[in-house]
Amino acid sequence: MDLASPSCGCMSTTEHSPECPTGFIRNPHIARMDEDFLYHLGLGTKTHNLPEMFGDVKFVIVGGTPKRMENLAKYLLNEIKHKLPVGTQLSDLTGAADRYSMYKAGPIICVNHGMGNPSISILLHELIKLVHHAKCKNPVFIRLGTCGGLGVPGGTVVISDGVLNDKLNGEHEFKILGNVVPRPTKLDANLAQELKAVASPSDGFQTVIGKTYCADDFYEGQGRLDGAFCDYQEADKMRWLNMLQQRGVVNIEMESSMFAALTHNAGLKAGIICAAIVNRLNGDQITETKETLGEWQERPAKLLARYIRRQLGV
Amino acid sequence: MDLASPSCGCMSTTEHSPECPTGFIRNPHIARMDEDFLYHLGLGTKTHNLPEMFGDVKFVIVGGTPKRMENLAKYLLNEIKHKLPVGTQLSDLTGAADRYSMYKAGPIICVNHGMGNPSISILLHELIKLVHHAKCKNPVFIRLGTCGGLGVPGGTVVISDGVLNDKLNGEHEFKILGNVVPRPTKLDANLAQELKAVASPSDGFQTVIGKTYCADDFYEGQGRLDGAFCDYQEADKMRWLNMLQQRGVVNIEMESSMFAALTHNAGLKAGIICAAIVNRLNGDQITETKETLGEWQERPAKLLARYIRRQLGV
């Protein structure tokens, strides 16, 4: 059993086995299952007509909180001029599962992924199976989020062009049946450029491209001094942050390595666009007002909307 | 800098520095901060009177979803016969932060932790600082959750007496400033026995004590065959599950190693009690009805309520 090199016929998006018509999944067992129930989404192949419900999906947008994703779906609905039938409104498609919240705005789905790599991992496994079962055509996956900035002021929009783990490798190390299976944390370079291209000097904020460091914790894992535990000093922290900056890191968050590794493994076009809510070179605590933070968090959504409109020709 | 051995004066709950009057936190920087804003809880030392709000807290209960924790708080309120003022109801104490939901039922707080170690990590750092700032006296931390069972039928209640990581060690490996810092995943042995002692043969369900395996993923990380990716066979999976069972593992979930490592590091009395929603030796998919799953998930809460009533002398 060679875990690092999948043995099923579905290794590439261009050449794949009949078991995997979309090319997204790499799991020969799925085709042999009577039913595939996506437990955390509350959707299944027997209980729902997934191609009918989701076959038109072109953009899968994931982000932290349910409220933010609901607002995003409403915003995008308006931006792409998609009209809902009179007397209807968006409703949570996963309501019954009580784990994630998913909204569908025409060809766009917006789902919250919670916090951290394991939480987004569950969601992505089920979303990748969802676009597979629904037979979606070339869906683009984008994570919209917040992050700590490194040498960029709060409010800066950061587009990731790669993700580093704690060993400073461009890999996520999966632990599978007692083995460590590294997978590359690659993002689509063209998509990063396309997202950057829709930024404008008149935006009133800066948009930059750079590397993202992915941590498994907000406090000690990001070198903060203000967690419940801290056994290092300000100078140790600054040495580490400066070292990251020298490696090209411009932001730190908690979901990018899993997002990049899973979407890349599925052969999906994927990107990450985040708003920095603090410049970590200046401090640890998030001290901006709720209003300011709210305005900053809308910035990635503005670029996203322009990108989607351009893709749809709206 | 010796990261594995904290150098601040707050190493023990009996002997600690004046900087850390409660003994829970291990961070000399906190006492020097003007304000400590617990960002993901939306609570701060300057904006809120934390001793007044939370000084009476004796039990801190954490669990997966917001809805389940709200229902738990209402249930416990009734169980401990705590009356709210006429015309009032419980409300989410972290509503403004939009990350976690926290409810207070007399001396009990119930907070959802989302899914996975990183998500519960953020919450625990902030809860440990909260009980510190609020000057709580010997609060007991308990995680209530769901899990995959190993050799026990769905519906079994599992009380953890230790947590193993992917290397089968009783440690959680923290990644801090480029170093790997292992911390023991110890739970309170007396608390496990106290929780077991309130189970009764007439419960209509089995309650067992055993080791918990903590994974960072629901699919490949737990040896499931039904994720978006799977490069192993049924026989590989069964070999791994059987090996875990031989090591004393009775359940698998995704938050225990962080929960045990952080509460132990804080010198807190802590325990984990979960309902198994599937016997992994029989399959991967969660196929029970929502009603059955709902009833199973209430079982740990029943034991918890008895334990708390006994402690409070209700």
Automatic annotation (TrEMBL), chains A, B:
Residues reported to bind phosphate: 99, 143-146
Stored CDD domains: UP_hUPP-like
Residues that, per the record, bind substrate: 222, 224
Signal sequence interval, chain numbering: none
Pfam families: PNP_UDP_1 (PF01048)
Residue spans crossing the bilayer: none
Gene3D superfamilies xref list: Nucleoside phosphorylase domain (3.40.50.1580)
Domain of life: Eukaryota
Start and end residues of each Nucleoside phosphorylase domain: 58-309
InterPro entries listed in its UniProt record: Nucleoside_phosphorylase_d, Nucleoside_phosphorylase_sf, Uridine_phosphorylase_euk
Family under the similarity heading: Belongs to the PNP/UDP phosphorylase family.
Protein name, entry field: Uridine phosphorylase 1
Source organism of this protein record: Bactrocera dorsalis (Oriental fruit fly)
